[in-house]
Amino acid sequence: MSYQIKMVSEMLGIPKNTLIAWERRYAIVDPERTDAGYRVYSERDVRRLRRVQALLDQGYKVGEACRIVSERVDGEPDRPRDVASTDLAALTALKEELRDRLLAFDREGADKLTARLIVVPFEQGIDGVYFPLLRDIGTGWETGRVTVVQEHYVSAYCREKLLVMLNSVQGVQPDAPEITCATPPGEHHELGLLALAVRLAIRGFRVTYLGSNVPVADLVDHVNGRRPAALCLSMVHSRPRAEVVSFAREVRSRIDASVRIAVGGRATDEPDLSAPGVTFCGHGLPPWLDALRYKTP
């Protein structure tokens, strides 16, 4: 598939003049030209530009980011340091080293490690590095080996990386279904929801990410005002079964019937949870997402 510069600019959120400047100064891409002289970018070009953008979000300067992408993607000497998406052992080793760097508050060292994930698909980075890391930190906190400050620092770092992913893949197609993501009042754990938002954006949805601890009245007003295709909610904190069902029923009763509602997270892992018009999906994706994605507007 090929893309004109306007589409690439919209996909990546990079001004057209910036794309042209990167091409001329750093030779990061070499798009073909039409007979009329218009630039045509390949899938490979877009991938390279996306990787440059990810490194810029991590704090690299543009020249350094272009050099890293050129060396690592094109097979120059730096490439063996990257982590292949199929190399589970390497992902695990990187996760463990990243944990040690973050527990020592070594931001620079952590960023150099995560830069090696540049060729790993985002979902594999989430499943193979960031969430195993968060589980390790949680276990360490429970056993007293990790302090509250360390836990907060690591969580904030992982949240930042997930937000970078979301911004990198956020869809711009106006006809793509919109999905709103939020957590209810009192629910401050949002990393699972943020990972879900990334997965949805990768699948082509337009994601409106509201974050954690959203008051019900504000959530209802927002959703009824925008009428997204779906609302995805995350409930992680342990709470009585009746409370989970009651919340789901309340939200369903106050939101337009055309909006699908899914509630996931650890609090919904219990069997046989049921509320009319609500899908409880635990840690998985709602089963109706594919049909929603390909539905003709």
Q: What features would you describe in this structure?
A:
- This protein has helices at 5-12, 16-26, 43-57, 62-73, 88-103, 107-115, 122-142, 148-169, 191-202, 216-226, 241-254, 289-293; strands spanning 2-4, 32-33, 39-42, 178-182, 206-211, 230-234, 260-264, 278-282.
- It is α/β, with parallel strands linked by helices.
- The chain folds into 3 domains: 2-48 and 61-73, Multidrug-efflux Transporter Regulator, Chain: A, Domain 2 (Orthogonal Bundle), CATH 1.10.1660; 82-169, Methyltransferase, Methionine Synthase (B12-binding Domains), Chain A, domain 1 (Orthogonal Bundle), CATH 1.10.1240.10; 178-293, Cobalamin-binding domain (Rossmann fold), CATH 3.40.50.280.
- A hairpin with a 5-residue loop joins strand 2 and strand 3 (39-42).
- It is flat.
- The model is unreliable at 73-81 (pLDDT under 50).
Structural topology:
Blueprint: E1 2-4, H1 5-12, H2 16-26, E2 32-33, E3 39-42, H3 43-57, H4 62-73, H5 88-103, H6 107-115, H7 122-142, H8 148-169, E4 178-182, H9 191-202, E5 206-211, H10 216-226, E6 230-234, H11 241-254, E7 260-264, E8 278-282, H12 289-293
Parallel strand pairs: 4-5, 4-6, 6-7, 7-8
Antiparallel strand pairs: 1-3, 2-3
Helix pairs in contact: 3-4, 5-6, 5-7, 7-8, 8-9
Q: From N to C, what is the helix and strand string?
A: EHHEEHHHHHHEHEHEHEEH
> In the residues, how many domains can be counted?
3
Shape: flat
Number of strands: 8
Report the mean per-residue pLDDT as an integer.
86
User: Can you identify the CATH class of the largest domain?
Assistant: Alpha Beta
CATH architecture of the largest domain: 3-Layer(aba) Sandwich
- What's the name of the CATH homologous superfamily of the largest domain? Cobalamin-binding domain
Report strand order across the widest sheet: 5-4-6-7-8
Distance between the termini: 23 Å
Alpha carbon gyration radius: 21 Å
| Structure annotation, total helices | 12
Helix content: 40-55%
Structural class category? alpha/beta
CATH topology of the largest domain: Rossmann fold
| Major β-sheet annotation | 5 strands, parallel
Proportion of beta-strand residues:
5-15%
